[in-house]
Amino acid sequence: MLAGILxxxxxxxxxxxxxxxxxxxxxxxxxxxxxxxxxxxxxxxxGDRFPLGVLQRIGRGLTRITGIPGWAAIAVxxxxxxxxxxxxxxxxxxxxxxxLGRDEELFTAPHTGILLGLVGILSGAVFGxxxxxxxxxxxxxxxxxxxxxxxxxxxxxxx
Length: 159
Description:
Blueprint: H1 2-5, H2 22-42, H3 52-66, H4 70-100, H5 109-135, H6 144-150
């Protein structure tokens, strides 16, 4: 595992670079370091309670660095990182299929990168929404346009 993070070429297919887990492990290690630094930069607050207080603290760190609200920075940052991870996985997967043909296994390094990236994009929206809800005293807020789309345009604003 440590050899994969440090960039050793390991994997199936006799050590082929396309089967290497090093790019995915390197991106994930960098992600953990950045999140830890943001958590540290966010500073402690009396209202932080585990586990959701971690998101608030990371959001405060992002607000201090970027100047935009933490909930938005969490959603954008997480989604952009996940898009990068999925892109690296997709690029490697296309190269794999051109060079080596069909896969023998389902969870190859490129497929895992794509899957983690897609789940990460979804989690960006969830993390951003969760940290936004915490700011609203754990009250869930649904935008009006979502109600309109869910009802097929039949929803009207009743005041």
